Amino acid sequence: MSLPRCSRRPARARAAVVVVSTICLVATIVPAAAAPPPAFVAPVSGPVVDGFRPPSSPYGPGNRGLEYASVPGEEVRAAAGGEVVYAGRIGATAHVVVLHGDGLRTSYSFLTDVTVTRGEQVSQGQVVGVAGPVVHFGARVGERYVDPGLLLAGAPVEVHLVPVELLAPRDEAEERGMLQQLLVDVVGEAWRGLRAGSGAATEAMAWLGQAAMVTGDAVVDLADLVATIGHETLEAELAAMWTQAVILGSYVGQLPVSPLYLLHAAEQWRRAERFRASQRACTPADQPPPPPPGERRIAVLVAGFGSSSGEADVLDVDTARLGYAAADVVQFSYAGGRTAGVGALAGVEVSDYRPDDSTGDLRISGERLGQLLAAIDVAHPGVPVDVIAHSQGGVVARLALAPDPGAPVVANLVTLGSPHNGADVATANALLGTTIVGEVAQAGVAQLSGGIDGASQAAAQLAETSTLVAELSDTALPAATRTTSIAATGDLTVGALHSSLEGATNVVVPLEGMSAHADLPGSVVTRRELALALAGRGPTCRVVDGDLVRAAAISTATDAFGAGLGVAAMWADRAAPGARLPGRTPGTPTPRPTPAGAVVGPR
Questions:
Q1: 324 and 176 share a domain?
Q2: Is 293 within a domain?
Q3: 551 in helix, strand or coil?
Q4: Of the residues 52, 149, 285, 410, which has the maximum number of CB atoms within 10 A of its CB?
Q5: Could you list the residue range(s) of the whole structural domain that residue 140 is in?
Q6: Hey, how many other C-beta atoms are within 10 angstroms of the C-beta on 538?
Q7: How far apart are CA 18 and CA 163, in angstroms?
């Protein structure tokens, strides 16, 4: 392939494609029948520079369509009549998909702009978009790509056993997702280029030194670049370059050899000191927590990233032993209100949510949680409400409880493994997401996991360098709410020091292992700390210095891994054949766009 492919939505799992293709779809080239299909025409007038080459393996090199050399600004036309089922941007480039009457879909990819809208009926030869330097033309039966050259040659494609749902437009996200296989081609080409290169490691390190700046030549050529690729594409590319520069700069500041390392070390010390300070009013380990109060209380459980109704680690909290009646336990729904399967609290909206509902804008999630708390306050006046939030849920809870004279009063806020200072893995993910390799990895994980979308806005907002994290660091906790932050010593997802929260009681519990983050809500040691916190007592007396040193080491190791992975992905992008902006000096990096609101600059 010869043009960068940028995407933000999950790719279909390769194994699933094979199964679906085998069971549901059969596309075979057959001799002309009695009623020949409508003729197809080429989308642009330029020559084909790369033909149809189905990859031999899911991530091998190949091309699932035809690539045309085009003139930037040239009109791209529909190969045949049909309905537009997708028209929009995926990453830095624009794409159009047209569904034809027999279930065949044609795609027009890596455009600079689109001129049609979803749902519009187009005729053969109608303009659907504006070309960049290269246009990719694809043809699919469901999710299976077929050779569009055969269509152009007049060879009919007979489609058997196409599921009824594929004969009609799918929702926009699904139509968009069907385009993701094109990204796999780019990764395969990049990998092939890397294997064929020499001195890659040395050259990659030299290139890394230039990655945080835009050269003077690029500025001089800016007008020509805009004219060539379009301002939206350029904006996305420059945004990705800025993201890379910010995160790489952040990583440099965390290296002991850097002059900026003293600032990082001082911040780590401040975070650790909050845990030490909370020990000054500790509860002896041999002293049991007081029994739950006899009064009625309501517990609102807020789950984390990728959770869903009834499927969340925070549901492992033993609310019964903490004194809550089963009916008074609420799971916050990221779709609004509470979920149907947890508790039976009356007077509030009920709606279930899916994993992708928990990966949207966290500010909106915070507003919805605030609305739920307000509804509970109206329906159950005078009943104390406690919020227990796990992981991302702690950030959502802080957004919901931001100081506001009209906000409902919450008695206790207890967060479990929450990234109050961002998360190392989210920072690494944000850097990885600016690359083609990273996008494919994120798409694959999202597809296989059913909800862990690394390209989502929530994932970007949890990066250490995001605007949201910076804003929360300057936001005071509500004075009327007793706040406790509980972290696990060996948490690999959210390092304990990242859960340190100014103005809260900060507690670290001895949990280790790969599952420490998920195990935290249901742990016996956590239940003790929850009981103490809800009773207004200090944490269990422990010597925490060793735990905090271990947590700092985990954070450093995660940063090193994230930086190395990101640099490797950036280098792979650069090695991909033709993966550079038109007009850019060969050898300068090719940035990739990031989700809205991802990384904006140093804090």
A1: no
A2: yes
A3: helix
A4: 410
A5: 14-182
A6: 18
A7: 15
In a domain, 118, yes or no: yes
Residue 198 in any domain: the answer is no
Residue 503 and residue 384 in contact, taking contact as beta carbons nearer than 8 Å: no
486 pairs with which residues across the strands?
Answer: 416, 507
Does 451 map to a domain? no
State how many domains the chain has: 2
Q: What is the pLDDT of residues 496-540, one digit of tens each?
A: 999 999 999 999 999 998 899 999 999 999 999 999 999 999 999
Query: How many whole angstroms separate alpha carbon 186 and alpha carbon 561?
Result: 24
CB atoms within 10 A of CB 101: 12
Contact yes or no for 391/517 (Cβ under 8 A): yes
Of the pLDDT bands very low, low, confident and very high (cuts 50, 70, 90), residue 455 is confident
Residues 165 and 287 in one domain: no
Q: What's the whole-model pTM score?
A: 0.64
What residues contact residue 519 under an 8 Å CB cut-off, 6+ apart?
313, 488, 511, 513
Structure tokens at 335: 């779709």
- When pLDDT is cut at 50, 70 and 90, the band that residue 243 belongs to is confident
Q: Which among 584, 568, 583, 601 is positioned nearest to 187, based on CA atoms?
A: 568
Confidence band for 198, pLDDT divided at 50, 70 and 90: very low
- Sorted by sequence, the CB contacts under 8 Å of residue 304 that are 6+ apart come out as 312, 313, 314, 358, 390, 391, 392, 393
Read off the DSSP letter of residue 338: B
* pLDDT at 203 exceeding the cut of 70: no
Kindly report the CATH number assigned to the domain that includes residue 123: 2.70.70.10
- Is 72 a residue whose pLDDT tops 80? yes
Residue 594 corresponds to which tokens in the numbers above?
């990031």
Helix residue spans in 538-597 (DSSP H):
545-575
